[in-house]
Design brief:
This protein is of the alpha+beta class. It has a single domain (about 5-155), classed as Roll (Nuclear Transport Factor 2, Chain: A). It has helices spanning about 5-40, 70-85, 85-95, 110-115; strands at about 50-60, 65-70, 125-130, 135-140, 150-155. The N and C termini lie far apart (about 60 Å).
């Protein structure tokens, strides 16, 4: 019997972990593009918005919350989002960047609880954005087709 060497064990561990991390990296790329498109295209939601689409926030006044199951409802949400959430989009227009979450600051339990209620298939990922006087923590769901299906945002002001 061949005894596994430490190098083989490390390679095996990395190969088991890389799929999940690769999915999260790809998902963050999808959200970055979605936020960029949302900040620059004002007439309609980004093409990478899935239907149905869910949007929920924490830490700010509730605007535009809900599940949007058809194009007409999604367009109404988009108009509300562009108006009510312009502080977030403006920071992205000004060169803001979606960052990896810090291991020292765990994702708020309230976002994880919200995510458990969403029953759409896809990849959940996290991101953090530090803007002008605020920090937004994102928990978002991307589909296999490269669309954003749910966007959960926890905003804290400093």
């Amino acid at each position: 019997m061949v005894k596994p060497t430490p190098l083989i064990v490390v390679v095996l561990l990395v190969s088991f972990e890389s799929r999940g991390r690769a999915d999260e990296v790809a998902a963050r790329g999808i959200l970055k593009q979605w936020l960029h498109d949302a900040a620059t295209h004002t007439d309609a939601p980004p093409d990478s918005t899935a239907t149905p689409f869910e949007y929920h926030t924490l830490g700010v006044k509730k605007h535009c919350e809900g599940t949007f199951n058809e194009p007409k409802a999604l367009m109404a949400w988009w108009k509300c989002f562009r108006k009510a959430e312009d502080y977030l989009l403006t920071d992205f227009q000004n060169g803001g960047e979606l960052e990896l979450p810090s291991a020292r600051v765990p994702m708020p339990k309230s976002l994880k609880t919200m995510a458990k209620r969403i029953r759409m298939p896809g990849t959940w990922a996290e991101g953090v954005f530090v803007g002008d006087g605020m920090t937004s923590r994102f928990l978002f769901l991307t589909t296999e087709r490269g669309q954003v299906a749910a966007l959960l945002v926890d905003v804290t002001f400093f």
